[in-house]
Design goal:
The structure is a single chain. Helices cover 37% and strands 23% of the residues. The chain has one domain: P-loop containing nucleotide triphosphate hydrolases (Rossmann fold), CATH 3.40.50.300. Helix 1 packs parallel to helix 3. The protein is of the alpha/beta class and 220 residues long. The chain has six helices and eight strands, in the order ββαβαββαβαβαβα. Strands 1, 2, 3, 4, 5, 6, 7 and 8 form an eight-stranded mixed beta sheet that branches. It binds guanosine-5'-triphosphate and magnesium ion.
């Protein structure tokens, strides 16, 4: 099972609360993954590496992804089974210093609505910068997930920047801390969009999650 690269289609950009509510109303059983993280941690780069080049726009200016971008993509199940379509969300980054109070407020409103309405069959992939993990804004973000039963994985990106063993050891420690602090963090991945470290594992995790949700729904 694998993500079919280049099968991704942009569906729509959401920048209004009503649009978010409408999408979930129309698709209560949607299955997929949502990428969210601090601005500039490499969400769009990771999405492009996993789903095919040019799925998401990569910004030179942090905070460029302002809308919730909704895509669909296919997973190949092997054998002679038909590939299945799933949803992919590229969410706007949080915690960027150069945005106005009003923009932060808009983000919080949008995300509140998003995570409240998001069906449990969509997993959250929270991207963090491996060199600066678990920042205050990451902790603030995790408050949105508190009490929800969404499946959440954390991916520490940019591990290619690690030169020393002690950096890696510090991140291992952080991983244990996150598991202890947040019971809803189900997986932690170490990845790099730059040199593809850890991407096969993350891809397998995404495929397994989506196909498992699919079999729950078709068998119930
Ligand atoms: N070294 C290294 N750089 C990376 C990696 N992933 C992304 N980058 C760089 O980090 C910068 C930000 O990447 P984006 O993918 O645009 O980040 P984003 O999280 O989508 O940013 P916003 O949409 O603005 O929130 C770009 O200059 C990328 O080239 C990585 O794994 N390693
Ligand atoms: Mg982006």
């Amino acid at each position: 099972m694998e993500i079919i690269r280049g099968s991704t289609h942009f569906q729509l950009g959401l920048d209004k609360l009503e649009q978010v509510e409408h999408l979930f109303e129309m698709n209560p059983e949607m299955i997929g993954v949502a990428f969210v993280g601090r601005s500039n941690v490499g969400k769009s780069s990771l999405i492009n590496s996993l789903f095919g080049r040019k799925t998401a726009r990569i910004s030179k200016t942090p905070g460029r992804t302002r809308e919730i971008n909704v895509f669909t993509f296919l997973i190949d199940r092997g054998d002679s089974a038909e590939p299945l379509p799933f949803f992919l969300f590229d969410l706007p980054g949080y915690g960027h210093a150069q945005v106005s109070k009003q923009m932060i407020k808009n983000w919080q409103l949008m995300m509140g609505t998003f995570f409240e309405g998001l069906p449990n069959s969509v997993a959250i992939i929270n991207i963090q910068d491996a060199r600066h993990p678990d920042q205050k804004v990451d902790q603030q973000f995790h408050k949105f997930l508190e009490g929800s039963s969404l499946f959440t994985a954390v991916a520490f990106n940019k591990v290619d920047k690690f030169k020393k063993q002690k950096d890696k050891a510090a991140l291992e420690k952080k991983k244990k801390e996150l598991f202890a602090r947040y019971t809803w963090v189900k997986q932690v991945h170490f990845v790099s969009a730059e040199n593809s470290i850890g991407l096969p594992q993350l891809e397998q995790a995404i495929s397994a999650y989506c196909l498992e949700q699919y079999s729950f729904q078709t068998n119930s």
